[in-house]
Amino acid sequence: MPAITYNEFSGGLDRRLSINSQDANKLWSLRNAYVTLGKRLNKRPGLRKVTAGLAGSFGLESVSGALKVFCDAPSGFAPPVVAGLPIDRVSLNVPPAGSTLDRIYYADLFQGFIYVVARYASGYTRHHYVDGATTYISDANCPHTIGVTKAASRIFAPSAENVRYSAAGAARDWTTASDAGFLPAGLQQDTKGLVKACGTFQDSLVVFFDDSAQIWAVATDPAANAISKRLYGIGTQAPLSLASFFSDLVFLSPFGFRSMTVQAVSNRIDDSDVGVPIDPLVKPDIATVAATADPEEIMGVWIAEFGQYWAVMDMGSYSKVWVYTFSRSSKIACWSEYIYPIEIKAIATLAGKVYLRSVDALYEADPLKFTDDGQLIDIEVQMAFQDAKSPGVSKQFYGADFVTEGTPSVSYKFDPRDTGKESIPMVIPGDTRPGDILPVEIMAPALAPVFRHSKDEAMTIDALTLFYNTLGLNG
Fold first, then answer.
1. What does the pLDDT look like over 110-144, one tens digit per residue?
2. Taking a C-beta distance cutoff of 8 angstroms, is the pair 58, 42 a contact?
3. Record's superkingdom (predicted)?
4. CB-based contacts of 266: which residues, under 8 Å, 6+ apart?
């Protein structure tokens, strides 16, 4: 009996081709699930609520073995007490311009103390250094911008069309000659825009404009700073989307997600770049965020515990996360889409666990939790149309076998010209191979299986086998 088995989903979510011409290992939709290192499909981590009581504080960072949240020094905020999980308050002095804290853009250790970039309700930003003195940095040459990074023992920050940097090992000093200074990025190419962000790529510094970027060699001796490459046609308007991992730097460009490795080698928009498979899906989201929120706040983070890059987009009442799962050893590099029913304001990892915060609550993203704090997780996995490697040949699909964990449903789209045509869903009772095959009873040249799941249980999809009879050429 003719049959075809699909047991390798390493392509992940991919929209580069039409739904009727996609490779079998690539998926048309992959929502709230991801491709594992074994190349099967697995339900995303659910949310376990750790505590409430974070309102009045902002941000979330893992520093020196504890979670840190930030607030104005005069605030009466006291962090909640959670057994076995230290949550500390970091107080920031109110800057001379006044206003109240409303966002933490950056927080990292520098010479043993936390360097912070904070935004205030009035809209301005301020750099702080929590070393026991008044926290805000008063040096007139500190640019107080977002999109900062740490390199060559300094803090680098956008400053109009240039990049300013602090003195080596001295976060408060942005003035000392022959130590602190600036990179004249605006003089190195034709540009009408301002520097949007700075990031680290291997041993270099990357300076991003809206539509271009520069790679600089930076050193402890500022006299050795020099531009090494100019990249035209690719930049970012989302300075918080940058994340470094595996000697690469991933960021959100106006076209979609891109990597600095591909850009540095090819110096062009390449169809092999990391985000190209989901460009048609991401571009509308960029427009949605731009219309309803601040696109500069699209947040990117590498989560080593999951082996994933997350890009969090604020969609209003919920968060959409574009997830890039990457493993060189397993040859996995694929995208999926998560929907979380909370507004994710910050992400931090501590002791092998991943924490997300909303305005008031702290959650753990736990692979062993199968709901979002009691709310069911809606999974949808859709394959492209599969023709058993015989296009244009009509087939009688009469049965299917599955290897799954949990009880997802399966239905089949059978007309690529009208994807609203779909069979009645059937529940898959786990691994069907030892028993009877599940009936299909569809005549068509190709089928697009659709899996859905919304239950409080684990869910994986390992393999699908379609059984069919060949009826002959169409027409």
1. 999 999 999 999 888 999 999 998 999 999 999 99
2. no
3. Bacteria
4. none
Q: In whole angstroms, what is the distance from residue 99 CA to residue 95 CA?
A: 8
166 and 93 in a common domain: yes
The DSSP-derived string for 79-96 is PPPBTTB-EEEEEEPPPT
Answer yes or no: do 275 and 412 share one domain: no
Q: Specify the pTM.
A: 0.95
Q: What distance in Å separates the CA atoms of residue 415 and residue 290, rounded to the nearest whole number? A: 35
Last residue of a domain, one of 375, 392, 420: 375
Determine contact, residues 97/123, Cβ cutoff 8 Å: no
Regarding beta strands 101-110 and 113-120, do their DSSP bridges make them parallel or antiparallel, or are they unpaired?
antiparallel
| 281: three-class secondary structure by DSSP | helix
In whole angstroms, what is the distance from residue 55 CA to residue 242 CA? Answer: 27
* Whole-number Å distance between alpha carbons of 194 and 239: 12
Angle at 284 between CA 278 and CA 287, to 5 degrees: 135
434: left (phi over 0), alpha (psi -120 to 50) or beta: alpha
**CATH number of 466's domain:** 2.60.120
What amino acid occupies position 229?
Answer: K
- Whole-angstrom distance, CA of residue 100 vs CA of residue 97: 10
Reference 110, options 164, 69, 150; nearest CA is 150
* 261-314: pLDDT as tens digits: 866 665 555 556 899 999 999 999 998 887 776 767 899 999 999 999 999 999
**Boundaries of domain holding 159:** 46-375
Element (H, E) at 377: none
Residue 319 three-state SS: strand
CB 88 within 8 A of CB 77: no
Q: Which residues neighbour 304 within 8 Å (Cβ) at sequence distance 6 or greater?
A: 245, 349
Terminal Cα distance for the chain, rounded: 24
How far is Cα 349 from Cα 67, in angstroms, rounded to an integer? 8
Tens of pLDDT along 153-193?
999 999 999 999 999 999 999 999 999 999 999 999 887 78
Whether the pLDDT of residue 18 is over 80: the answer is yes
Tally Cβ neighbours within 10 Å of residue 99: 15
Q: How far apart are CA 78 and CA 80, in angstroms?
A: 6
